[in-house]
Amino acid sequence: KDAYIDIDNTIFQQSSSTALGIYGSANPDVTNCQMYNIAYEPVYMSMFSTPVFSGNTTANIGRMAIGIQVETYSQTATIPQRNFAGYNNITYMFYGATINSGTTISIPAGTVFKSTGTQAFTINGGLDVNGSSGSPVIFTDYRDDAYGNPLDTEANGSGSTPTTSGPYITFNDVSDDASSIDNAVFRYSTNVIRLNSASPSITNSTFYKVDYGVTNAGVCAPVIDNNVFDDLDFAPISISLVSFPASLTGNTISGTTRKGIRVQNETLTQDAILQKRPFGGISNIPYIFETYTIGTGVTLTIDPGVVCKFRSNGLLAVNNGIIAEGLASSGNRIVFTSLSDDFYGGDTNADGDATASDYWRWYGITINGIALDPLCRFDHCIFRNTRYNYGAIRTINSSPSILNSSFTDNYRGVYATGASDPLINYCDFSDIIYEAVNNVNQSFVIDAENCWWGDDSGPTHSGNPGGTGEVVTDGVDYLPYGTSGAINPILGDVSLNSLVQAYDASLVLQHVVGSITLNATQQGVADVSGAAGITAYDGSLILQYVVGLINYFPAALLNPTPAPVSEVELLVGNSEVDLGETFALPLSISDVSDLYAMEMTISFDPEILEAVDVENLISGMNVNFSIDNETGTIKIAFAGIESLEYAMDAASIIFKVNESVNTGLSTPITAKSFMGNETDLSWNVTDGSVSINGFATGLGTDLENANTQLSCYPNPFSNQLNIDYKISGDKQKVAILVYDIYGKMVAEITNGEHDAATYNISWDGIGQNGNTLRNGTYFIRMVSRDKVVTQKIQIVR
Fold it and tell me: H-helix or E-strand containing 709?
């Protein structure tokens, strides 16, 4: 210790700890030494001793690194990087250190610290971690072979696996808030950076396989920007409600990391406001609670739209005031639910579509007798997934007001004990296992008027013989009760029956095409995408939710993910028909990708055509339509569960030609509007037309001499179409051509001079270029001197 010695050509072996211990300001020269069969590190030393190493060799070392002794740093300095036994910038095996007040320690880029346990840097002064993007500073477990020199510190290959035992950093309240951690990598540790009323800057760093990234205790305002939180066991940050980071921009949450802000278990001792916060790309990230108490003399106010999730067995106890007053719109209701509930706030616990068991339920909110009733107010709140006996809200000699709120999937709704007299008005109760309202002691008659009890018949109670809704006990005034469905429906419950079903998607489509008009309450929950208003794409999302392809709606995140952009083209077909004929006009789509829903408005001349029906040609798509033959307007909405990825005939409009119109005319069929998913594609349409026979063809017609006949069979056909036709008169030029629905000629079957006779030919569905024509609708047109005759055919293989 504190000494110089020249150690040369010496053999160290069979040590149960280390070969050399270098302490204090010692500065030995260690040259050409051999260190064999050492149980731990070859050298264990003070960080700022100044030995000289050269020419040394090692073999059979337990941990090939330099061990750093536990000590306190009292002088400002930069951590040195050392070369030893052929390893440049060798790994440090870190056993803990304290930085004194008034002292700043800097760590240069590329330094690697490994630990055998949860050893800490305790900061009472300043710490500057100065990594770079290409050379970060590393803090990790000694069994982590991804970093260090050598990488495999134990030289055991894959013989050991890292666990959360790496080093961490604690900033105490006396530390220098000018401290910074930049471009660091933290791996395999617990709650890595712990802030005790401290506010350093933490930027451009990666947290991987740790419990928590940054934990705040007390009043802290750190800068936490541009960090990556990947595969954490719990949340990226943990906070006290009395403070919040000064900045949380540019961070990324990925892998198993819980997508929420963890709230520490504490007793609130000063008034606080819980606000909607953006973090990790989520504009309204949920707060994750376990056991939390609002202390005497203080009030927690929760802003509209905040999502509060609770870990299993979590609870919220109120000893003074809680003001949770949301707004009527679904995105601004305040949510209290379990961590496993993906419907609100998304997949916060990052378990995909795993089904949560009762274990994940929480214990609800308890309003204790010392709470102040005027400061305990719930309005436009949602309570879900509580367990056991005490209800989503339990009152003990307390009387909060609970208005315009929803209780669903709970063991009990409101559980009132002692001299409790809560006000419960305009609330919904559904999917309650026991009682929706249980007035245990019945010291008062609880006012629970104008609530909906899960069924329009009212609650189940002896005083309401026909009621089949949720159960209420005696001592509950439930009259009058709601008889028109849910008052505060969940997102997607357009039918107001407290469930999200395929029928809700149908109602959305009917509203889109104008067959029905949803009321204000229904419209408030129909826009499940959170963008572009109520569209057919909302119907698609509801269908996807019903079958389990998604677990929540974008609108519930208050960070709507835009619907996939699809530049699909709509093509309106062409047709040539006779007076009085009923025919099908195809609507086709091309350039199709990521297409879940469509809306279109088709316009026609009602003086010439009458729209009769719309036939859906897309398997797996739900379609609703409305026809207005007075204005000549057809509205069609499509919604499916899976995306369309190829061109196809989408639908056929069945028209009838009015017999009173003149022949020899053409009438346009136009797409006035077209939307793919939620993108306006009205510019990307090709209009069609209908020609009434007698319209000039350019070859001349003689309607009085209608001696030309055409017959095609079987129709539809798969491999061979037979064509019979009759020609009256010799030396006539006759062409039989095939057109697609867009009016493009795709095949020429025959074209030449014919004498008077009856002919029979066949066609195999091969087009002009030798390609087999795809399934769909086509038109066989025979053109002769006498007449133009058209017949519709279909290829079905």
Answer: strand 709-713
